[in-house]
What does this fold into?
Amino acid sequence: MKIIMLGAPGAGKGTQAKMIAAKYDIPHISTGDIFRANIKNGTELGAKAKEYMDKGLLVPDELVVDLVIDRFKEPDCEKGYVLDGFPRTIPQAEALDKALTAIGESVDYAINVEVPDDNIINRMGGRRACVGCGATYHIVYSPTKVEGKCDTCGGDLIIRDDDKPETVKNRLSVYHEQTQPLIDYYTNKGIIAEVDGTVDMKDVFNAIVGILGE
Ligand code: ADP
Ligand code: ADP
Ligand code: ZN
It folds into this structure.
């Protein structure tokens, strides 16, 4: 099963993608996580990506596409994958289609997690990420057992550099301009599925399972 998560920054794509990956036993591929790992490890790609990420801009398509397509060649992708944060532009979606068509495959579902901009600003302010394992929490909606420490690995929690309010505003306008057109793109392909992302995380997930099947 090949799934794409669509939605504004902070809509809950990552939260849902992790649950989908666990239930359907497919890898969760997050381009944001891949870039953040590169930044942490001090790679050249990380340095290039950081320039854009810190401003709330998208990393250029040419730095993203090959990276994702190469990832599909790993053995864990045989049964499919859930893509979180990719594609984010029409050219990325076209490159994905081209690569899949070449091997006789296609995306099965594009799930759009719908959350209005006002809720987004509120959510991003409370998002916390673990420096150790990348797990995501929210100070109100998904708190850790011990304040400031990851439930999974005990690592420290931080506010992502790009979750500052000024940057979130930029990311939202970049989303509306460059990523939202993908909703029409996948609607035209007949594989879009919309879910209400404003309800409790578990209820969002139940709606997704209703679409993907048990
Ligand atoms: P969020 O989950 O909050 O939307 P991500 O972790 O997906 O954020 O992405 C963080 C940043 O990484 C983006 O603002 C962008 O700069 C960069 N990025 C991630 N995926 C892509 C992509 N497919 N194309 C371009 N830039 C990307
Ligand atoms: P995205 O990957 O789309 O940027 P995340 O999954 O990281 O979004 O979620 C953004 C923030 O909102 C996180 O702090 C997360 O814990 C929280 N969150 C996710 N889904 C919900 C929900 N349904 N209700 C309330 N908060 C949520
Ligand atoms: Zn952790």
Remarks:
- Residues 9-10, 13-14, 31-32, 35, 52-53, 57-59, 64, 85-86, 88, 92, 162, 171 surround adenosine-5'-diphosphate (ligand 1) (CB under 6 Å).
- The mean pLDDT is 96.
- The longest strand covers residues 109-114.
- The CA atoms of residues 118 and 172 lie 10 Å apart.
